[in-house]
Every structure is written in C-alpha cells, then in structure tokens.
Write a structure and sequence with these properties.
Length: 197
C-alpha cells in the first residue's frame, strides 16, 4: 500500500522538514569533512544528489520487478549496495573525465559515497514507506537536494566562523557540531508549512 503523499509535498519535505542529513543525521562523516571548502562541498552535494536520485530509481525497479517476484527480499541490502556501488563508480569515471580538479578535490570521499549511510538510508526509507516509482524518485531527488543545501550552507557558515572570535575550547569540531545543531533546528522549523495530504 503506497502512502497517499503528493510528490510535491514529499519533495519539499525531504529537502526541509525531513532532511535526510539534519533530521536523520545520515551521511555525517563526509558532510563534516568536505564542508571546509565551498567548491568541494558543492561538487560533493551535486554528486550525492545524482547518486541518491539514480539509486532510488534503480533500487525501486530491482525491488519491485526482481526481488519481490522471485521472493529474494532477504538479499535486498546486498543488492541495494551493489546498485549504489555501480552508480558511484559510473559517476566517478564521469567526474574524472569532465572535471579533474573536482575529482582531485573530492579525493577519497567520492568513492566513499558508496558507503554513505544517507544513500542506503534513502533506499531503505523508500522500501519501508512503500513509495511508488514517482515518489521514490522524488524522494531521492529531494533528499539529495536537501543534503546538498545542508553541506553548502555549512561550508559557507564555516568560512565565516573561521574569521570569527571563537573560544579556544570550541574551535574546530566543537563549533562545527554546534552549527549543525542550529541548522537542524532551523530546517525542522519549517514543519507545518505544507499541509499533509
């Protein structure tokens, strides 16, 4: 049974109120590490958005047309991870060809998208919530855009905070985690703006 959620509502909810990063805290390791530089954060945000959208679409098709009909649901975690790894590998080759400086800036974090828990989390949310194909794609796109918005916002804030007088005990990870907490509260503050259908 598919939940009766309009795609537009699902799209904006996955960006703001149910942001996969700031509401569920999935994908934090690359989020904190790459958000030191705005250009790298922007590139990783785009890559995560593309991977989330494509993997949610492909995983929905594989789940509905292969795993469920063949009664192989117990293999879904492995299959989801294989799909994610294949999409990330394809994206890595494309970025290497199109933008070698971005490829070098992202470094190890580009292949680590494969094990980014936000990517697998979105696929599992799609399955648990029984989204149809359109809802799955919209949820993947919205979650990716929400992740991208969060990482470029944090990168911009960190750039400003680096020049601010921060107490010595809070410099580095301390002020970053406090900033993320305030960002999460701000995003969740959008709750109730869209009517639930």
């Amino acid at each position: 049974m598919t939940p009766n959620i309009a795609p537009l509502t699902l799209f904006f909810a996955s960006i703001f109120t149910s942001n996969i990063l700031l509401a569920n805290f999935l994908g934090m390791c690359s989020f904190i590490s790459i958000s030191k530089d705005l250009k790298s954060a922007n590139g990783l945000g785009l890559a995560v958005t593309v991977v989330l959208t494509l993997t949610n679409a492909v995983n929905w098709v594989v789940l509905r047309y292969v795993l469920i009909p063949l009664d192989l649901l117990y293999l879904r975690f492995i299959v989801f991870i294989i799909v994610i790894a294949a999409v990330v590998q394809m994206l890595e080759m494309i970025i290497d060809r199109v933008s070698p400086p971005l490829y070098m800036a992202l470094g190890i974090f580009l292949p680590l998208i494969t094990v980014n828990c936000a990517i697998l989390g979105a696929a599992l949310f799609m399955e648990i919530r029984k989204y149809d194909f359109v809802q799955s794609v919209v949820f993947g796109l919205g979650s990716g855009l929400g992740w991208w918005l969060a990482i470029i916002s944090l990168a911009a804030i960190r750039k400003k905070v680096d020049k601010a007088p921060v107490p010595a005990g809070l410099k580095g990870p301390g002020i970053t985690l406090i900033t993320i907490g305030f960002m999460a509260m701000a995003f969740i503050g959008f709750s109730g703006m869209l009517p639930v259908q």
